[in-house]
Amino acid sequence: MNRKILVTGATGSNGTEIVKRLAAQNVPVRAMVRNHDRAKEIALPNVEVVEGNFDRPETLLKALIEVDRAFLLTNSTEHAEAQQLAFVDAARQSDVKHIVKLSQFAADARSPVRFLRYHAAVETAIQASGMTYTFLRPNLFMQGLLSFKSTITSQNAFYAAIGDAKVSVVDVRDIAEVAVAALTETGHEGKIYNLTGPQALTHAEMAKQLSAALNRQIAFVDISSEAMRDQLLNMGMPAWQADGLIEDYAHYRRNEAAVVSSGIQDAIGKEPRSFKTFACDYATMFG
Question: What is the DSSP string of 35-56?
Answer without folding.
Answer: -GGG-GGG--TTEEEEE--TT-
